[in-house]
Specification:
Radius of gyration: 40 Å
Oligomer: single chain
Largest sheet: 7 strands, mixed
Number of strands: 10
Order of helices and strands: HHHHHEEHEEHEEHEEEHEHH
Helix content: 40-55%
CATH architecture of the largest domain: 2-Layer Sandwich
Strand order of the largest sheet: 1-5-6-10-9-8-7
Number of domains: 2
Low-confidence stretches: none
CATH class of the largest domain: Alpha Beta
CATH topology of the largest domain: BirA Bifunctional Protein, domain 2
Bound molecules: phenylalanine
Length: 343
């Protein structure tokens, strides 16, 4: 047997294969053709097996030829098979009608945390009043958290804060008030902002968690007075707690406001007559506020003769507790789904 004879036979094998492939019309045809042309009894495979019995000088050429034909056959089979599988897949999809009577899969969609919801509600309210939203870092410097807020190192108010220190002069902010300074440094009046964010204090009990949330408010403009502050806080209280709530301002002290006030809202549960939630006082404290102490303007290069303003700060967890009658602040962060899903 010489090489041209083998080549001839392999070539006619390939042609036979190709003409059968041309008339194949489904996966069964492909399976049948595959057995016939690549099975152990096929000519090509037999030829490959017999190479060893050929004269030495034609073995390499015969092997090469047989292998290349084998490969061509296999590639073509695979290609056609993929093609018919796609057709069958499409047909299957088309023939399957969904059974609309089957019970739906149970899903537990996530929802916004109650604190995020209250923040959003308060943001909406203040945006409606023309305020913008500002932000500041949670890892803060001593300068912004205390110094520039008129609270120098030896100031007694510092001890009230139970600060978490990070290193040197870096700390976790104990309040959102540093955003006041950061914002004033970068902007000129008129300023109407609120700044929501997390704050940190070393405290943990029924009414304190080491991380909690505040919303700071700051207004600086020409001719701002205490009446503007009172109106703003009343509007806030009525929108968030209900029109029938009364608002009361009590004199207080903050290093960065003068005069300062603590703001109470009449208790929703007893309607002001006194109950356990309001410790029989009829009032619930919801925020701190006051006129911006003119000393702050020195830190941000404003002229205290030209502008004045007011600021306020509220604890969001407190507001959510009063709004929804929640009596333990730690519930917000225990991640008990039975609690979280209620809102
Ligand atoms: N930063 C104060 C606190 O955390 C609240 C406050 C803000 C008071 C702005 C007055 C003005 O207690």
């Amino acid at each position: 047997m010489d090489i041209s004879e083998i080549q001839e036979k392999l070539k006619s094998e390939l042609e036979g294969f190709k003409s059968e492939m041309a008339s194949a019309s489904n996966l069964d045809d492909i399976a049948r053709i595959r057995t016939r042309y690549t099975g152990s009894k096929s000519y090509t495979i037999t030829a490959l097996g017999n190479i060893g019995s050929l004269p030495r000088e034609i073995r390499p050429a015969a092997g090469k030829e047989a292998n290349s034909i084998k490969k061509e056959i296999e590639d073509l089979l695979e290609e056609k098979e993929r093609y018919f599988k796609n057709i069958r897949f499409d047909a299957d999809l088309r023939s399957q009608k969904p059974d609309l009577t089957l019970p739906a899969m149970k899903t537990h969609p996530g929802r916004r945390h109650i604190i995020s919801q209250v923040i959003e509600e308060i943001e909406e309210l203040f945006i409606g009043l023309g305020f913008e939203i500002a932000e500041g870092p949670e890892a803060e410097t001593d300068y912004y958290n205390f110094e520039a807020l008129n609270t120098p190192a030896d100031h007694p108010a510092r001890s009230l804060h139970d600060t978490f220190f990070i290193s040197g002069k870096t700390l976790l902010r104990t309040q959102t008030s540093p955003v006041q300074i950061r914002y004033m440094e970068k902007h000129q009046p008129p300023i109407y902002i609120i700044a929501p964010g997390k704050v940190y204090r070393r405290d943990y009990d029924i009414s304190h968690t080491p991380m909690f949330t505040q919303i700071e408010g700051l207004v600086v403009d020409k001719g701002i007075n205490f009446g503007n502050l009172k109106w703003t806080l009343e509007t806030f209280a009525h929108e968030i707690f209900g029109r029938e709530r009364k608002v009361r301002l009590r004199p207080h002290y903050f290093p960065f406001t003068e005069p300062s006030a603590e703001v109470d809202v009449s208790c929703k549960i007893c309607n002001g007559s006194g109950c356990r939630t309001c410790s029989n006082s009829g009032w619930l404290e919801v925020l701190g506020a006051g006129m911006v102490d003119p000393n702050l303007y020195k830190f941000v290069n404003y002229d205290p003769e030209q502008v004045n303003g007011f600021a306020f700060g509220m604890g969001i967890e407190r507001i959510a507790m009063l709004k929804y009658g929640i009596d333990d602040i730690r519930l917000f962060y225990d991640n008990d789904l039975r609690f979280v899903r209620q809102f």
